[in-house]
Each structure stands twice: as structure tokens, then as C-alpha cells.
Amino acid sequence: MANASLVQVKVDEETKADVTNLYESLGLDLPTAVRIFFKKSIAVGGLPFELRNDTRSGRWDIYKEAREAIRKNNVPEMTLDEINAEISAARTGA
To answer: Sign (positive/negative) of CA torsion 55, 60, 61, 66?
Structure first.
């Protein structure tokens, strides 16, 4: 590797052990895995995974809020058969 630079990262020992074991199970050592992460970041022009600012509990909060709004507005809940009938009608243009 011509003109190589040293990159140091501090992580707790448990995280290092977990990620080292994970990468070794894939046949990679930690430095190779980090280089792959860097190369993939360059290839995609950003992080090689999607960042999200939502949590599973947050998704349920949205669901609960929607159900509460439906209840407050006296909108009757639909049965599965009613939902499927509505979808079929929309697809056929009826």
C-alpha cells in the first residue's frame, strides 16, 4: 500500500471483540473490514447504509396517534373484508 496513513479509533473492548469475531467469521481481519467500509463509502458517495432517526417504538406511536384520531373523529373501523373490497373496487375503477 503506497503512502498508507494510519487511522486510529477508540472503542470499548466488548465492541472490538464482537466486531472482530463477526469479521473473522466472514474471513476478514478488522483492518481489512475497515478498508472495505471506506471503499464502499467512496463508491456510494456516503455511508454504505441508510441512517434513520426513527425507532420501532416511534412507529408504534404514529400508529397509536392515527387510531386515536380515527376514534376521536368517529370514523368506524373497517373489517379486513371491507378493506379488501375497497382495494378491489379501487383497482377495477368501480
So the answer is: positive
